[in-house]
Amino acid sequence: MRRVAIWMVAVTLVLGGATLAAAHSASSLEMTYDRTGGVLTVVAAHKVPNGAVHYIEEYEVAIADTEFCSLEMKRQLDKERSVAVFHVGDLAAGTKVSVRTECNRGGALSSTLVVE
Which of 8, 96, 106, 113 is deepest in the core (most CB within 10 A)? Predict the structure, then answer.
């Protein structure tokens, strides 16, 4: 009985470790702000084998430390990256724009852009 219990614990640890290994945040966030159109573009580098089951699930945008919007995704169309575009309007120079992304399998990454 003790061997069975040890075996079950070992299998659980191995399978749990495989799940954690598959979870990862975006490796980088590239943010650009186009003043002409008031558009913020966020490119999250996030390599996945199948964007239907592993993807950047959520984008949260804050402007000047105030929550602006969030976007929930259900898939990732590109195997290398996820892209989101937000109309944030005319922002003054020096305004801080923060974005947080979260992978549906765990892991998050944040970045901040200061408008020039």
Answer: 113
